[in-house]
Amino acid sequence: MKKNQYLMAIDAGTGSIRAVLFDIKGNQISVAQKEWTHLEEEGIANSMNFDFEKNWGLVCECIRESIKLAGVDSKDILALSATSMREGIVLYDAEGKELWAVANVDARASDEVKYLKEHFDGLEEKFYAESGQTFALGALPRLLWLKNNRPELYERVVHISMIGDWILAKLSGIIATDPSNGGTTGIFSLSKREWVSEMALEVGLKDDIFPQVLEVGTPMGEVVESVVSKTGLSTQTLVVMGGGDVQLGSAGLGVVKAGDVAVLGGSFWQQVVNIPKETLPPEDRNIRVNPHVISTLSQAEGITFFSGLVMRWFRDAFCALEKQEAGKRGIDVYTLLEEKASNVPVGSYGILPIFSDSMKYSKWYHAAPSFLNLGLDSEKYNYISMFRSLEENAAIVSSINLENIEKFSGIKVEEIVFAGGASKGELWSQILADVTGKKVKIPKVTEATALGGAMAAGVGCGVYESIESVAKELVVWEKEYTPSMQNHKMYQEIKEQWQEAYKTQLELVDRGVTSSMWQAPGI
Question: Is 195 within the bounds of a domain?
Fold first, then answer.
């Protein structure tokens, strides 16, 4: 009798590490998760160190637990791959031992961002045209910080990789990266899908630390003997190159062809549109462009800050009674809030939430958090109306980002795949359809990023022909929402009002009257 066969995906997110086991038909068999935290380095403002020693232990725990929960023989795990938060980097010495690492949220290099902008006129624009990235989230300022502040450590650096690559390096003994994750360093060519080491040399940094680039799904070798006892893995399991979490998550949602579009509704919202890799980034630099996990494609990406986190704050600050009521009814509190908010008309009586701006990647900062246009009629202007206005606003900012992508890419958005926690909301999904005027499709998948990682592993061991082909097989749809064009027309007017209001709120930040919710390093 043929043995059952499995694929493992290791997902290193900002807040946790997970090991997820799938069968070769894409069914999730088990998942093990551990939370991790990234601590500020003492005396270094806005730093977020990645504790590779402690976190490697957590990775091993998750792998062991996932195998144990599934009750499988590790020899039946054909292949594994990894995905991770983007922008986070790990630096190694000549022996491949970790020297220094930071998480994606590390923002210590603000002075270095300013230095690069002030002393290298036009360089950010030049690099952006090739890489699709600005300095704010990239690796160059962080490497410059290390050179300026930890010169002895900097001198020992021989390799750089991303955090997902680090996991694969620990398991296979090979340090490499892929375009989708490595591209977020900003030291990369979108069209060639390779490092551009001259960028580092141009700002006075080493240009010989960049490892080989492997496309997603490329076999790297078997699990090394030295990690078997720690992980419970078999040396017969193949280690396969993975990729960035958003891009592999897109693959797990079936967003694999040019013109495919997704809105990922998590703590932050991302709006991603697949474009040919030869497409030049926009001249205004307001949209980020990343290599996709599909070798012929890039992804234009808009980001809406804190949409999910704002909703969590609102729930905890204002909705204690709904929490109690939802608990008694055995339903999610957001389901209850949506039930009540569905009785509020389109536009939420004119309430305008001021939280995340639409994406302005070249000069990225936000106004002070607030609600505008509140009135004294408590039947209209209450926390339920405010809740609906937040759902509407997240959709409005997403639509602006998608329109900006359409303008430079020439891609016309036809329909939207909506995923992440927000897509569980029926009201929110309908609002997204109404605001954008596009059909919204909800996939039947709970672990899209991990599924994308399993797809990569399956391609590497020959179970699947390609990520594009297996996405068509494994991704199934749960619901579809058709827009109300009458509501769409109303939302177009609300969108214009909101943009005018937000512009004025930013001016208050500029004048020092209010404080920005967030601003990029170097602003």
Answer: yes
Q: What are phi and psi of 303, to 5 degrees?
A: -130, 130
User: Which amino acid is it at 179?
Assistant: P
Output the pTM of the full model: 0.93
Residue 272 lies in a domain: no
Query: What residue ranges in 134-242 does DSSP mark as E strands?
Result: 159-162, 176-177, 188-189, 194-195, 212-213, 219-222, 238-240
Q: Which residues of 238-277 are buried (b: 16+ CB within 10 A; e: fewer)?
A: bbbbbbbbbbbbbbbbbbbebbbbbbbbbbbbbbbbbbeb
Q: Report the pLDDT value the prediction gives residue 445, as an integer from 0 to 100.
A: 81
Residue 300 inside a domain? The answer is: no
User: pLDDT tens-digit profile of 242-257?
Assistant: 999 999 999 999 999 9
Residue ranges of the chain with per-residue pLDDT less than 50:
1
Report the chain's C-alpha Rg in angstroms.
23
**Where do the H-state alpha helices sit in 105-155?**
110-119, 123-131, 139-149, 151-155
pLDDT tens digits for 91-115?
999 999 999 999 998 989 999 999 9
Spell out the alpha helix ranges (H) of 410-523.
Answer: 426-436, 448-460, 467-474, 485-510
Residue closest to 338 by CA, chosen among 412, 423, 257, 465: 423
Pick from 430, 416, 24, 417: which is nearest to 253 by CA? Answer: 417
Q: Does residue 164 sit in helix, strand or coil?
A: helix
User: Whose CA is closest to 96, among 37, 171, 13, 199?
Assistant: 171
Neighbours of 388 (CB within 10 A): 26
Q: What is the pLDDT of residue 1?
A: 40
Q: CA 468 to CA 473: how far, in whole Å?
A: 9
Tokens in use for 54?
């402690």
Q: Give yes or no for a contact between 453 and 248, defined as CB atoms under 8 angstroms apart.
A: yes
CATH number at residue 139: 3.30.420.40
Q: How far is CA 290 from CA 18, 69, 141, 272, 301, in A?
A: 24, 36, 19, 10, 7
- Quick check: helix, strand or coil at residue 418? strand
What are the tokens at 230? 């720690």
Question: Is 262 a member of any domain?
Answer: no
* Domain count along the chain: 1
**Furthest-apart CA atoms within the chain: distance in Å:** 74
In whole angstroms, what is the distance from residue 379 CA to residue 406 CA? 40
Q: Which domain holds residue 65?
A: 6-246
Backbone angles phi, psi at 30, to 5 degrees: -160, 160
pLDDT at 2: 55
Give CA separation, 522 vs 133, 172, 204, 303, 416, in Å.
Answer: 15, 38, 19, 19, 34
State the pLDDT at residue 412.
95
